[in-house]
């Protein structure tokens, strides 16, 4: 580029094209549940955009894909404003990047809250669709998709068809109001059978369990949703009144007691070594779990420290997703073909 460090016209054009491509891919993925590229390819485009922005911050506008939670709201559903915003998660793609992220988070905590000890709530990243459940005095009054993080789509009737999500919470300590966030998914054992049924009915099979979950949940007719093998695990809370807990792992205990489904795989870990052990363990058995995963999520467990770190317009600074390297199915297939 020009010697003064400003972006060249070529780079500006690449930047615009990248942003447009990312918007188009997001539309296909979130609105049509029909991705046009693989997640790994999408992640690479997104990363390239982030790199250009890091080198040339003057290019970043408020509507850059890096500043927004992807996922618009379809007019097929009534819009729902979340009481508290929903965010995406920052990705890292190697253990080295994870180390850098953890050090940065620890430094941020040390700066804002010196002497704190940090524990890491470590979870599987469920390959499903995010939902926001609003419970008032224990009753499910509304369920919505994440949408753009501010406004989601009203899918209450569809969510009520999911057997593991209670309409009424049980217990005498249910809060006055709580937004429970979680992931709706199709269990691995049911995914292949669902696709066989789709094909037998003359319909296109789903590309992956995430698209199957999204397509099943975002139906106009709840009777169709009811026929799909949907399940869910809760992994966070938003707005709350009358709920006191100091740490996210503590809320999981409460949610479980009230009858909500919570992942059995989560662990509270002390340090990076333990987190890496978790990543390795689940990397080996990622295809023999109840659901598909596309990585591991690591969260600062303490709510006070989460608040101390805060968030950007797109992601919390207290949470990161480690993505496993993409599996080279196509390359292997190619090898086989080449070797015949
Ligand atoms: P994301 O799906 O990578 O991460 C954020 C989401 O993870 C949260 O909203 C939450 O619903 C979910 N999640 C699952 N398990 C969780 C847990 N244990 N704790 C907390 N959250 C958990 O972020 P995103 O912004 O929705 O989308 C980016 C992802 O979607 C990338 O993986 C990208 O590859 C893919 N994508 C692909 C295309 C495509 O064209 N192929 C387009 C857009 C996005």
UniProtKB/TrEMBL annotation:
Active site: 125 (n6-amp-lysine intermediate)
Annotated NAD(+) binding sites: 39-43, 88-89, 123, 146, 183, 299, 323
Annotated family: Belongs to the NAD-dependent DNA ligase family. LigA subfamily.
Function per UniProt: DNA ligase that catalyzes the formation of phosphodiester linkages between 5'-phosphoryl and 3'-hydroxyl groups in double-stranded DNA using NAD as a coenzyme and as the energy source for the reaction. It is essential for DNA replication and repair of damaged DNA.
Protein name: DNA ligase
Designated gene of the protein: ligA
Residues of the full protein shown: 13 to 352 of 774
């Amino acid at each position: 580029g020009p010697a003064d460090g400003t972006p060249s016209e070529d780079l500006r054009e690449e930047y615009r094209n990248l942003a447009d491509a990312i918007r188009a891919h997001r539309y296909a993925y979130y609105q049509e549940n029909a991705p046009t590229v693989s997640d790994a390819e999408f992640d690479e485009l997104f990363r390239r955009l982030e790199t250009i922005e890091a080198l040339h911050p003057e290019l970043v506008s408020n509507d850059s894909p890096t500043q927004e939670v992807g996922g618009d709201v379809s007019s097929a559903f009534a819009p729902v404003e979340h009481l508290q915003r929903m965010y995406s998660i920052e990705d890292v793609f190697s253990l080295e990047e994870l180390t850098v992220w953890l050090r940065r988070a620890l430094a941020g905590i040390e700066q804002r809250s010196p002497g704190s000890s940090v524990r890491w709530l470590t979870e599987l990243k469920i390959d499903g669709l995010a939902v926001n459940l609003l419970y008032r005095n224990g009753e499910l009054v509304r369920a919505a998709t994440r949408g753009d993080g501010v406004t989601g789509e009203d899918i209450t009737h569809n969510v009520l068809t999911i057997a593991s999500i209670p309409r009424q919470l049980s217990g005498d300590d249910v809060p006055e109001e709580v937004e429970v966030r979680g992931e709706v998914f199709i269990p691995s054992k049911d995914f292949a059978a669902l696709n066989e049924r789709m094909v037998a009915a003359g319909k296109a099979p789903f590309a992956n369990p995430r698209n199957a979950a999204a397509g099943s949940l975002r139906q106009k007719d709840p009777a169709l949703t009811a026929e799909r093998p949907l399940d869910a695990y809760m992994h966070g809370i938003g707005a709350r009144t009358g709920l006191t807990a100091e740490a996210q792992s503590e809320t999981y205990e409460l949610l479980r007691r009230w009858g909500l489904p919570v992942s059995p795989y989560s662990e509270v870990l002390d340090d990076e070594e333990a987190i890496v052990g978790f990543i390795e363990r689940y990397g080996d058995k990622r295809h023999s779990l109840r659901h598909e995963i596309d990585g591991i999520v690591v969260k600062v467990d303490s709510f006070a420290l989460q608040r101390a770190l805060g968030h950007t317009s797109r992601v919390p600074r207290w949470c990161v997703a480690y993505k496993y390297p993409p599996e080279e199915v196509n390359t292997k297939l190619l090898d086989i073909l080449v070797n015949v």
